Amino acid sequence: MQIKDVLAVVNDEFKSVDQLINEQLASRVPLVEKIADYIVSSGGKRIRPLLVLMSAKALGNCDAQAVKLATVIEFLHTATLLHDDVVDTSDMRRGNPTANAKWGNAPSVLVGDFLYSRAFQMMVELGSLPVMNILSSATCIIAEGEVLQLTNVKNPDLTEAQYMDVIHGKTAMLFEASTHSAAALLNCSAAQAKALQEYGKELGMAFQLVDDLLDYEGDAVAMGKNVGDDLAEGKVTLPLIHAMANATEDESRLIRQAIRKGGLDDMQSVFAIIQKTKSLDYTRQKAYECADRAQQHLELLADSEAKQALNALAMIAVQRNT
To answer: Which PANTHER family match (predicted)?
Structure first.
């Protein structure tokens, strides 16, 4: 099963999400609409709303409420992207200039706030306290994850356990919230809700591990961002953590200095050490372990086309090159 086959399972519902997104971007302030439409329409994978729709379909009822929840999730995600690009001073995302590069930091942050607010308006319309509880808690954890990552920039002493905590907060949490909130919306059994929650978490962890892997071996054109951005920004990810733990003392010292300094002056030397220590293979292995656990959690669900698509998505997430 390829991504097009996964999308085909919820094709009509996905079109409804796109339509609702466009309706909900309406604002009396033209610049708000312009920036929001720019970032929402910039070619993202829309994995998180897809997870909502497929989880709902796997549970037997992907209706208009599920479409609205999927739109809420996409707005929350887009808001975090706007804020992240300002924090990271990024100038490219998905092959296009970031919103802050085009319009400046202040409008980007404020439009991010608008999207958060619109998401919570729609959340209220869903009328589900369990969904509101899951998503409000998730947004707090996501913010904490971003702050945690920020406080560890240029910190070569970050451990693997701490790194896993960071990526759970900043990335996996919204995957987890997507599947968990879909289960809550449909009032399924506690066991099914837990299974989908854990599936989303493990899928999100796998997804971020591959992202961090691709930062060192990806194609800049295909990814729509610069290779080596993490090292340039002093972000410590699993390839670097593993390399430092398995390199010689001199090699480890070089990586530590490169992290503290930031920039790409030492990129070639660092990459050579990462290759020598097989740190990309180690990161890939960890991603596959997460994907495998994600698939195991799906065993509790009744067999269906949607369940098969969720199963396939776990492998697609780790085998991708963008």
So the answer is: ALL TRANS-POLYPRENYL-DIPHOSPHATE SYNTHASE PDSS1, GERANYLGERANYL PYROPHOSPHATE SYNTHASE
